[in-house]
């Protein structure tokens, strides 16, 4: 037997043994697209959502999408290294990353695929109603200017809460993460001091506190340390059963993170681009102030026409049908206008 | 004919051995050169100030590794002191007091302890040791020894002390078993000699056993120290991950191994990544240094035993 | 200083195995008692019972009594017993981490003596007694491994003498030494017997005959015969002694 034949036989055996038996009506299509697999990597935050969406997508189209949640930075790195078809990141490419990517494979397309928010979580055993905080207070706490929970400026915003005389213990993400980026982005919008002294980034030099590794590390630290305060991806905070605060928005109203307050914030900005993506501290009476999009990134120029059209199809599905799975999993679907922008980007570049 | 074949197989064996040795040397060489190559940008950008710089701020492109070096050394040192005192004491008890059933049980438990993965130690540290330190241990130290800078400041639970204690507990089984072996090697005639002069068991240990095993014990201690330097998961979980240098053991810190694993995946710029590689290089150098010292000390004690 | 050592129905065991069977004998003061017998006959076990070293071996125990100066040693603190009954082992065992001086001083320090001049005086005296002084007086603070084996063994004798015991046990002290060094040790034993009760284990019968005032023969854990060397070697009363002496035993 010729070796090429041997390899083909082995390959087809492998493919057929792991695939789901094809139905006869789809036979012709699946036989071809079964060999088809898209690979992506990146953000861990979107992984629960993407794994549901991709499994549904497989049911619908028999195209397999293999997604490896390593980290947003990992997603960017793998795109630059051209080892995956798409990357997912909580923060769009910055200038340096963009330059590397362009050198590696040409211009990058980026578009929002889902929407999330960050909760200010804390651990105060005696306090049952949600605390009310404002941006300045949160900044002061994370700058290390306020040391105890019964501080007058916290008490002023929470007249009905009996605040414990506990030290405030700041906890942050020790690893670089989009979550930290969005949180420091918010603080920089609130406070010029934060902006100049600490700045915005996936990893910053924290004035006070201790670091936890990953969402899980932070949640674990908050749960085990009375008096702790930190920021966490909202859906993660909810599933970890941590207390979280309401935050005063730009209109002066206290809002908690929830489906409608996040949607309200997102609806304030109709145009979102990779250069101008921040939606923190949004105006509007009901807007929650710490929200952000997650992004998918891929090369505009694709070598393989098959991959190109498969990727296009998959992304289209992701921002349309895929969005219907968001809510039940604790994510917020993309606003209509953003979906339309995404679709026109896909149409414009791919057809 | 027979002789010939034997000769051939000997040569084959020697050849295989030599090539294994060469592969090992090559392997080490490759690791080191890759580390140097990858950290070259950081080495040329910061030079020596990489080791003395106290600020680690990726946002401002400032990479100084001193806080990590400090945290690594201090936490390992705390662990070492704990493991040496408690482990040494336990080893003495186990070798000198011959309640056989108890010794067997203790040996079994120590073997079990040695097989527990470090992440489990880390979890135990986070959920048992850290709360205890926060609520009881550190407040007590602060109340009694608070005038010493080492035991002052805010009490967190996590921090250098917690990391050191976890490291110490993790080192215990190794230290105990090595020290036991060393003490078992102290000739019975010497011990009898001391007893025959009217020494109590404690006096015998102090006068003969410990001096005889002293250098070997030091070597064992250094060996565990080398292991502690590179310990990652358990330390990451309890050290606080804050790249600061504080004189208080209660304060959070960070370690070389720990910053490497927490930040490596997200390091996006070349300089950031390069600096993390240099952290790896520093860790390797420190570990190799301590390992060599320990090997030398162990070699010296066996050499002296041979002469005597 | 010397006092007679009296052993009554001594039995010794390692675990369940009985090594010595009902040994009774007297080792008179200012005399050298030699103990002879083939390898494994229990000589070492016997003398280790005299300074209560036997009981420090795991699972070892003994029955019977040993009397010194009207006191049963087994009713005293073993630490005290070992200060009264000094011991020198088969192979030289100086403490390798200590200097010559500190080896001799070790027992004094264990006795709580801190006064430097007393210690120095005693060290010199003991080294004189073991006729080592002239050889080491210029290297007192050197490591012991610079000494020859013969010197090391005499150092061990000095170490035992420094705490002024009444009884000195030597367990085959010259069996691992060269003949010249062995002879030196033998001369030393002769010199010392005027001040101590000496128990010398040896399986060299010539040596036993030369230095002994009294000789005891052990066979398979039993004391077969004791008497003056002249009697024992020339007119054995026991058949087994005769067999042993003529090389027919074991
Ligand atoms: N530590 C020990 N444990 C068990 N048996 C021992 C021990 N030491 C010696 N023996 C046994 O006791 C017997 C007497 O030994 P020993 O007193 O050393 O004889 P000798 O000194 O006459 O050669 C021997 O059979 C020996 O095997
Ligand atoms: Mg013997």
Overall description:
The complex is a heterotrimer of chains A (351), B (308) and C (250). Chain A has 2 domains: 35-115 and 293-350, Periplasmic binding protein-like II (D-Maltodextrin-Binding Protein, domain 2), CATH 3.40.190.10; 117-287, Periplasmic binding protein-like II (D-Maltodextrin-Binding Protein, domain 2, 3-Layer(aba) Sandwich), CATH 3.40.190.10. Chain A has 14 helices and 12 strands. Chain A has helices at residues 3-18, 27-33, 47-61, 72-80, 95-105, 135-143, 152-157, 178-190, 192-197, 214-224, 234-239, 259-267, 305-319, 336-350, and strands spanning 37-42, 64-69, 86-89, 108-122, 132-133, 169-173, 210-212, 228-233, 243-244, 246-248, 254-255, 291-299. In chain A, the strands form 2 sheets. In chain A, strands 1, 2, 3, 4, 6, 7, 8, 9 and 12 form a 9-stranded mixed sheet that branches. Chain A has a 3-stranded mixed sheet with strand order 5-10-11. In chain A, helix 4 runs parallel beside helix 5 (95-105) and helix 13 runs antiparallel to helix 14. The longest helix of chain A has 16 residues, at 3-18. The two termini of chain A are 43 Å apart. In chain B, strands 1-2 form a two-stranded antiparallel ribbon. Chain B contains 12 helices and 2 strands. With 250 residues, chain C is of the alpha/beta class. In chain C, 36% of the residues lie in helices and 25% in strands. Chain C has 10 helices and 10 strands. Chain C has a 6-stranded mixed sheet with strand order 6-7-8-3-9-10, with helices on both faces. In chain C, strands 2-1-4-5 form a 4-stranded antiparallel sheet, with helices on one face. In chain C, helix 7 (179-192) links the parallel strand 7 and strand 8 (197-201). In chain C, 46% of the residues are buried. Classes of the chains: A alpha/beta (351), B mainly alpha (308), C alpha/beta (250). Chains in contact: A-B, B-C. The A-B interface holds A 70-74, 76-77, 94, 96-97, 167, 169, 174-177, 198-206, 209-213, 217, 220-221, 224-225 and B 55-60, 126-127, 130-131, 134, 154, 156-159, 236-237, 240-243, 252, 254, 261-263, 265-269. Adenosine-5'-diphosphate binds at residues 14, 19, 37, 39-45, 57 of chain C.
């Amino acid at each position: 037997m010729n070796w090429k034949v041997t390899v083909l036989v082995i390959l087809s055996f492998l493919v057929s043994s792991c695939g789901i038996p094809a139905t006869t009506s789809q036979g012709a299509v699946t036989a071809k697209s079964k060999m088809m697999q898209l690979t992506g990597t990146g953000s861990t935050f979107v992984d629960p959502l993407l794994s549901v969406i991709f499994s549904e997508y497989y049911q619908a189209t028999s195209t397999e999408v293999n997604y490896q949640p390593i980290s947003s930075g990992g997603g960017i790195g793998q795109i630059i290294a051209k080892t995956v078809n798409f990357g997912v990141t909580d923060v769009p490419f910055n200038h340096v990353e963009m330059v590397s990517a362009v050198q590696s494979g040409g211009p990058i397309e980026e578009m929002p695929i889902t929407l999330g928010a960050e909760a200010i979580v804390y651990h105060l055993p005696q306090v049952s109603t949600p605390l009310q905080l404002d941006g300045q207070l949160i900044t002061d706490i994370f700058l290390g200017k306020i040391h105890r929970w019964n501080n007058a400026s916290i008490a002023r915003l929470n007249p009905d809460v009996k605040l414990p005389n506990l030290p405030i213990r700041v906890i942050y993400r020790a690893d670089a993460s989009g979550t930290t980026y969005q949180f420091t982005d918010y603080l920089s919008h609130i406070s010029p001091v934060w902006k100049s002294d600490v700045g915005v980034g996936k990893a910053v030099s924290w004035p006070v506190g201790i670091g936890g590794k990953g969402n899980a590390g932070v949640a674990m630290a908050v749960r085990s340390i009375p008096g702790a305060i930190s920021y966490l991806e909202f859906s993660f905070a909810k599933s970890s059963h941590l207390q979280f605060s309401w935050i005063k928005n730009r209109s002066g109203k206290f809002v908690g993170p929830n489906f409608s307050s996040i949607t309200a914030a997102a609806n304030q900005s109709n145009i979102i681009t990779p250069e101008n993506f921040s939606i923190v501290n949004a105006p509007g009476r009901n807007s929650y102030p710490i929200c952000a999009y997650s992004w998918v990134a891929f090369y505009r120029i694709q070598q393989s026409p098959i991959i190109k059209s498969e990727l296009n199809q998959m992304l289209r599905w992701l921002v349309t049908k895929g969005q219907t799975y968001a809510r039940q999993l604790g994510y917020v679907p993309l606003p209509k206008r953003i979906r339309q922008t995404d679709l026109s980007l896909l149409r414009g570049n791919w057809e | 004919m027979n002789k010939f074949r034997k000769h051939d197989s000997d040569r084959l064996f020697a050849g295989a051995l030599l090539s294994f040795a060469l592969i090992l040397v090559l392997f080490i060489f490759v690791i080191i050169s890759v580390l140097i190559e990858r950290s070259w940008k950081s080495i040329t950008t910061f030079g020596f100030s990489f080791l003395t710089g106290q600020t680690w701020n990726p946002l401002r492109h400032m990479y100084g590794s001193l806080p990590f070096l400090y945290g690594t050394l201090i936490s390992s040192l705390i662990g070492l002191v704990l493991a040496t005192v408690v482990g040494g004491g336990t080893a003495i008890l186990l070798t000198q007091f011959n309640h056989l059933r108890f010794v067997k049980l203790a040996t079994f438990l120590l073997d079990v302890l040695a097989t527990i993965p470090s992440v489990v130690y880390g979890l135990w540290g986070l959920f048992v040791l850290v709360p205890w330190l926060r609520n009881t241990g550190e407040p007590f130290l602060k109340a009694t020894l608070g005038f010493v800078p080492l035991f002052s400041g805010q009490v967190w639970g996590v921090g250098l002390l917690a990391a050191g204690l976890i490291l110490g507990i993790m080192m215990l089984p190794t230290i105990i078993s090595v020290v036991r072996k060393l003490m078992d090697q102290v000739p019975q005639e010497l011990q009898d000699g001391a007893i025959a002069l009217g020494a109590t068991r404690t006096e015998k240990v102090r006068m003969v056993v410990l001096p005889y095993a002293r250098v070997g014990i030091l070597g064992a201690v250094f060996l565990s120290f080398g292991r502690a330097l590179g310990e990652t998961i358990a330390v990451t979980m309890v050290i606080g991950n804050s790249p600061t240098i504080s004189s208080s053991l209660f304060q959070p810190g960070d370690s070389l191994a720990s910053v490497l694993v927490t930040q490596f995946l997200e390091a996006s710029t070349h300089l950031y990544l390069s600096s993390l590689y240099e952290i790896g290089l520093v860790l390797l150098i420190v570990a190799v240094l301590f390992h060599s010292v320990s090997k030398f000390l162990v070699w010296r004690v066996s050499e002296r035993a041979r002469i005597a | 200083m010397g006092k007679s050592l009296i052993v009554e129905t001594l039995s010794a065991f390692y675990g369940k195995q009985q090594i010595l069977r009902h040994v009774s004998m007297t080792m008179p003061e200012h005399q050298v008692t030699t103990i002879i017998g083939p390898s494994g006959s229990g000589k070492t076990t016997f003398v280790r019972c005299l300074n209560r070293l036997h009981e420090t071996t795991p699972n070892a125990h003994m029955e019977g009594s040993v009397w010194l100066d009207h006191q049963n040693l087994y009713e005293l603190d073993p630490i005290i017993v070992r200060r009264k009954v000094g011991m020198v082992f088969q192979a030289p065992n100086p403490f390798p981490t200590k200097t010559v001086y500190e080896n001799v001083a070790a027992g004094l320090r264990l006795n709580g003596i801190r006064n430097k001049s007393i210690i120095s005086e005693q060290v010199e005296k003991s080294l004189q007694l073991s006729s080592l002084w002239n050889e080491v007086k210029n290297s007192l603070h050197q490591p012991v491994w610079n000494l020859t084996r013969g010197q090391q063994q005499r150092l061990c004798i000095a170490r035992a003498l420094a705490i002024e015991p009444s009884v000195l046990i030597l367990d085959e002290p010259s069996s691992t030494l060269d003949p010249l060094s062995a002879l030196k040790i033998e001369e030393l034993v002769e010199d010392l017997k005027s001040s101590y009760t000496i128990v010398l284990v040896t399986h060299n019968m010539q040596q036993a005959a030369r230095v002994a005032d009294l000789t005891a023969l052990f066979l398979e854990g039993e004391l077969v015969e004791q008497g003056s060397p002249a009697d024992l070697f020339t007119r054995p009363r026991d058949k087994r002694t005769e067999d042993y002496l003529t090389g027919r035993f074991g």
